[in-house]
Specification:
By secondary structure, this protein is mainly alpha-helical. It folds into two domains: 213 residues, Rossmann fold; 93 residues, Tyrosyl-Transfer RNA Synthetase. Helix content is 55%, strand content 6%. The chain is built from 14 helices and five strands. The strands form two sheets. A three-stranded parallel beta sheet has the order 1-2-3. A two-stranded parallel sheet has the order 4-5. Strand 4, helix 9 and strand 5 form a beta-alpha-beta unit. The structure holds adenosine-5'-diphosphate and tryptophan (TRP). Tryptophan binds next to strand 1 and helix 8.
């Protein structure tokens, strides 16, 4: 039974990649660990400092988390900004975080390239806030994708540095959660190897997409002009469709279209029609649950209050101890 923490930024709807790469694993993990899952609304301000509807964005992710099967009774499900203890620990960690090491962070360099008009301090200190999220609960394990490994490494650095500087053995070293099996990566409909929301949704299918929208997106997915030599590697777009077919349509359909491909008589339109219907079938239970949760204000309030209460109990204890270690003491 490990203490696990993970967060997700509320910057849009969840897509199939987020579900298979993250949320589905959270749902499994909550059964056998003490899990804290939160919506990283503070973090979202580093890239979207004046969101048109922050509350709406948080609600969207909350509803989708719950529809995917995160259980507020089993895991602690909370909103980052409901836990001011995180902000206090972030302030304290920043005193021992060095500008040089933050500037060297790959995600910082990437973001200043993407938003040169807004190189804010929040962006620079993104890793200290993320470290605070993790060690505020003294987490041992963090389920994150490859792109977050450097951030997790920095969380270890800050935790170890705290222990060393204040001569305590207080924070455990948070490590990546080991999923055992290969992490599933869902490819994009635009021919990119990873489904992502960042390209205006052309590559992604969202859990909230209507059946008509799913059909439209799948039918528009990138392919090529047809198999030339079945022994040559397939184009990335077509390869992606086969990968998606394997996940959503199963072996029989996969073999059917594989053999049509090998014989050179495949019609991509037929493959897409089948794939679209299977994705619709897969996603409809999520859409139904999301619609019910969306209007259940009382339940959402109950869930977030319970989450905040449980998270503050854990974080409050850590902050009291840290204050004592550093030397903030009452008269
Ligand atoms: P995006 O910006 O595309 O929505 P994020 O980078 O915010 O995705 O990722 C949120 C979580 O979802 C992370 O844990 C990430 O590893 C996972 N994830 C995102 N896209 C995919 C994908 N195509 N396949 C598997 N996991 C993914
Ligand atoms: N940086 C993570 C992402 O973009 C989100 C995040 C914030 C997080 N705080 C965290 C993930 C703490 C794990 C643990 O995906």
């Amino acid at each position: 039974m490990a203490l696990v923490v993970s967060g997700i930024r509320p910057t849009g709807n969840l897509h199939l990649g987020n579900y298979f790469g993250a949320i589905r694993n959270f749902v499994k993990m909550q059964e056998e660990n003490n899990c804290f899952f939160f919506i990283a609304d503070y973090h979202s301000l580093t890239t979207h400092p004046t969101p048109a509807d922050l509350h709406g964005n948080v609600k969207t992710v909350l509803v989708e988390f719950l529809a995917c099967g995160l259980n507020p009774e089993k895991a602690t499900l909370y909103i980052q900004s409901d836990l001011p203890e995180t902000a206090e620990l972030y302030l304290l960690l920043n005193m021992n975080a060095y500008i040089g090491e933050l500037e060297r962070c790959t995600s910082f360099k990437e973001k200043i390239r993407n938003q040169p008009q807004n190189v804010n301090v929040g962006l620079l200190t993104y890793p200290t806030l993320m470290a605070a999220d993790i060690i505020i609960h003294k987490a041992q394990q963090v389920p994150v994708g490859k792109d977050q490994e450097q951030h997790l490494e920095m969380a270890r650095t800050f935790a170890n540095r705290f222990n060393r500087l204040y001569k305590v053995n207080f924070f455990p070293e948070p490590v990546a959660y080991n999923f055992g099996e290969e992490l599933i990566k869902i490819p994009g409909l635009d021919g990119s190897p990873k489904m992502s929301k960042s390209d205006n949704g052309s590559s992604a299918i969202f859990l909230a997409d209507s059946p008509e929208m799913i059909r439209k997106k799948v039918m528009r997915a990138v392919t090529d002009s047809g198999p030339v030599d079945p022994d040559q590697p397939r184009s990335q777009g077509v390869e992606n469709l086969f990968t998606l077919l394997a996940y959503f349509s199963g072996n029989e359909a996969l073999e059917h279209f594989e053999s049509l491909y090998r014989s050179g008589s495949i019609r991509y339109g037929d493959l897409k029609k089948q794939l679209a219907e299977d994705i619709i079938r897969f996603t409809s239970p999520f859409r139904e649950k999301m619609a019910a949760l969306d209007s259940d204000h009382e339940y959402l309030k109950k869930v977030t209050n319970l989450g905040a209460e449980k998270a503050r109990e854990s974080a409050g204890k850590t902050i009291r101890e840290i204050r004592d270690i550093i030397g903030f003491k009452p008269f």
